[in-house]
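Quick one, tokens below:
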């Protein structure tokens, strides 16, 4: 008989309704003109698919203890805030007032460990990540450790501010970890056959003296809360600097720093990086294909990554119809 993890697991998801007139007014009051700041509207666009995220959690991960739903104070009209499994978290509930209001996900992420009642083991979701088939606890944690894949890459290109953020994270990792010592101590976690073809990237980059970058899957990410406390205690300066930026900046660090730190410490359980999951960049040409994957429940997790769409409304109709096919019934999170 399959054993389940003897500990509780929470889910955390931030959300913003970028069409809210009150929010837009507040946004426009603070939006800067600095080119190194990312304030594109695409960062705040709401798919209108959120209720299917909640329905997927109820149907496919009924074991979750609590969902911590983070907003600036916004609340969908259909949300049942009396639901026992729901913890509606406002930014002001856990982010110090001096940093508010905030329009970047980075300060929201860096303080997640301060959410009242959050369990030690939790999974961080973005609002473009969905469950479309049943998952067990051990999909996210095994032996008390986050399931993850330590796969290297070389960060040499990209666009601001993300390129700067990646380098900021990397500089901190190289400051506190010796690549040689990490590989010596954790050889079989970093050179694991479960990684498949991706293992060759670690072999190719093995001779490099320092870490050159990490593959960051845009998927739900399991974390341990104590890791956040550890990093805040060891290197608070770059975290504090990020907290002061209301909008994404090339001077930020982000939640990937916590993940990379865990990989270098060996605080993870190696798994195949692709099994049961798929990330899609939504375009006008592939909306129908993504809808079919949803209907067929091909994957346990999918990400529908926002991109520039000419016909946003048409794509959303296709996706909503697909989700309605597999998740037609209201969840306990809905009124």
């Amino acid at each position: 008989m399959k054993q389940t993890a003897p500990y509780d697991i929470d889910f955390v998801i931030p959300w913003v309704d970028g069409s809210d007139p009150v929010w837009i007014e507040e946004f426009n009051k603070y939006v800067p003109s600095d080119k190194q700041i990312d304030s594109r509207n695409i960062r705040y666009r709401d798919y209108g698919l959120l209720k299917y995220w909640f329905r997927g959690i109820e149907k496919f991960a009924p074991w979750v203890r609590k969902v911590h739903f983070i907003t600036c104070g916004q609340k969908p009209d259909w949300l049942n805030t009396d639901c026992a499994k729901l913890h509606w978290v406002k930014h002001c509930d856990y982010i110090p007032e001096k940093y508010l209001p905030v329009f970047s996900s980075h300060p929201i992420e860096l303080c997640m460990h301060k959410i009242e009642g959050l369990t030690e083991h939790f999974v961080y979701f973005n609002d473009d990540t969905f469950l479309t088939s049943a998952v067990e606890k051990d999909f996210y944690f095994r032996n008390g450790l986050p399931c993850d894949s330590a796969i290297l890459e070389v960060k040499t290109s990209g666009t601001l501010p993300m390129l700067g953020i990646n380098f900021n994270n990397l500089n901190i990792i190289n400051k506190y970890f010796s690549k040689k010592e990490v590989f010596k101590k954790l050889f079989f976690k970093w050179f694991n056959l479960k990684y498949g073809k991706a293992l060759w990237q670690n072999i190719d980059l093995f001779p490099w003296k320092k870490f050159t970058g990490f593959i960051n899957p845009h998927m739900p990410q399991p974390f341990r809360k104590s890791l956040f406390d550890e990093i805040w205690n060891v290197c608070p300066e770059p975290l504090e600097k990020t907290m002061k930026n209301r909008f994404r900046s090339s001077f930020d660090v982000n939640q990937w720093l916590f993940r990379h730190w865990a990989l270098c410490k060996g605080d993870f359980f190696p798994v195949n990086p692709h099994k049961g999951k798929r990330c899609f960049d939504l375009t006008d040409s592939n909306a129908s294909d993504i809808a079919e994957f949803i209907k067929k429940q091909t994957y346990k997790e999918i990400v529908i990554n926002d991109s520039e769409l000419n016909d946003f409304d048409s794509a959303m109709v296709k996706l909503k119809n697909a989700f309605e096919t597999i998740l037609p019934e209201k969840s306990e999170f809905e009124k």
